[in-house]
Amino acid sequence: MALGTVTRLQAYLDPLLFLAVAVYGLLLVLLDAFTFQLKTKDLLNRNMMSDKVFGKVWLKLNKRIATSQLETSLPALVASASGTILEVGPGSGSQLPRYDKSKITKIYGVEPNVDLHDALQKTVKQCGLSDIYTIVLCGAEDFQTLASYGIEKGSVDTILSVQVICSVPEPQKTVSGMYELLRPGGQMIIYEHVESHDAVSRIVQGIYNVVWPFPFGGCHLDRPTGKYLMKAGKWSRVELEPKKEEDDWSLFPRVVGRLTKAN
Ligand SMILES: C[S@@+](CC[C@H](N)C(=O)[O-])C[C@H]1O[C@@H](n2cnc3c(N)ncnc32)[C@H](O)[C@@H]1O
């Protein structure tokens, strides 16, 4: 078998490891049910169960994933965030140690999964950000709740989105709304896994999508996030990393970089 085919097959098996952790997360949630920390009606609530399983899974995987990001441009991108920052889906706060505090006025962490809030709060404290960090319990698409925190059109200097657009319910609408929240000249920092440009890999992404969203908080492997960003509005600068060779077979190719809103 040609080396390329082996590499491709290996890449297509990658998500199985994550799914094994998902089974572990599901077992922990079921254990909570047996020990009466969950009500029977909660077990029948699909969205709640998905959030609960993802909460367990993410707390197991977050450190490993954050470490793997050290080899990428993400830490430097996060360190360039400035002013009033809207971090969508901060999870347990893996990006927090990467901020340069001297550049920041305020951070809003918009995190809809309440099961991650304790861990997030703990990281906020550890990073010495308690005085400038506010956790907002809603989805990035809930612009009404965001407005109640003063996060309104043109009010944000930097938006940070790290592996979140894959999970929002209405991605194009959410990305366009996020664009509106930025002030002219403001920057959107993006690190998102997206649809493959390779037809076979896209089919495999579609197959995994049958089971993937439930344990991974609504995550889809094949979102065209790059296209959503381009359609969101006018950018004066688009600094996105070029495609890599492994993007042909990877089920997690990424769009990474910074976009600056036109004046
Ligand atoms: C893969 S985790 C990434 C966490 C964090 N950004 C990081 O890099 O460590 C995805 C995060 O997006 C959050 N999320 C899911 N749906 C969301 C939505 N509609 N709005 C904002 N965040 C959302 C999840 O709860 C989770 O914390």
Q: What hetero molecules are bound to the protein chains?
A: S-adenosylmethionine
β-strand amount? 15-25%
Q: What is the CATH topology classification name of the largest domain?
A: Rossmann fold
- Give the CATH H-level superfamily of the largest domain: Vaccinia Virus protein VP39
Distance between the termini: 53 Å
Evaluate the radius of gyration: 18 Å
| Spatial strand sequence of the major β-sheet | 3-2-1-4-5-7-6
Number of domains: 2
Structural class: alpha/beta
Q: What's the main sheet like?
A: 7 strands, mixed
Second rung of CATH, namely the architecture of the largest domain: 3-Layer(aba) Sandwich
Give the gist of this structure.
With 263 residues, this protein is an alpha/beta fold. It is 42% helix and 19% strand.
Features:
binds S-adenosylmethionine, 2 domains, alpha/beta, 263 residues, 7-stranded mixed beta sheet, Rossmann fold, 42% helix, single chain
Description:
InterPro entries: Methyltransf_11, SAM-dependent_MTases_sf, Thiol_S-MT. It holds the Pfam family Methyltransf_11. Keywords: Membrane, Transmembrane, Transmembrane helix. This is Methyltransferase type 11 domain-containing protein. The chain crosses the membrane at residues 16-38. The structure is a single chain. The chain is of the alpha/beta class and 263 residues long. It has 2 domains: 3-62, no CATH class; 68-199 and 217-261, 3-Layer(aba) Sandwich (Rossmann fold). The protein has helices spanning 3-34, 40-43, 46-68, 74-79, 117-126, 143-148, 171-181, 199-208, 225-232; strands spanning 83-88, 104-110, 133-136, 156-162, 182-193, 235-240, 254-261. It has a 7-stranded mixed beta sheet, with helices on both faces. The radius of gyration is 18 Å and the shape is globular. The mean pLDDT is 95. Bound molecules: S-adenosylmethionine. S-adenosylmethionine is lined by residues 58, 62, 88-91, 94-95, 110-113, 116, 139-141, 162-164, 167-168, 217-218.
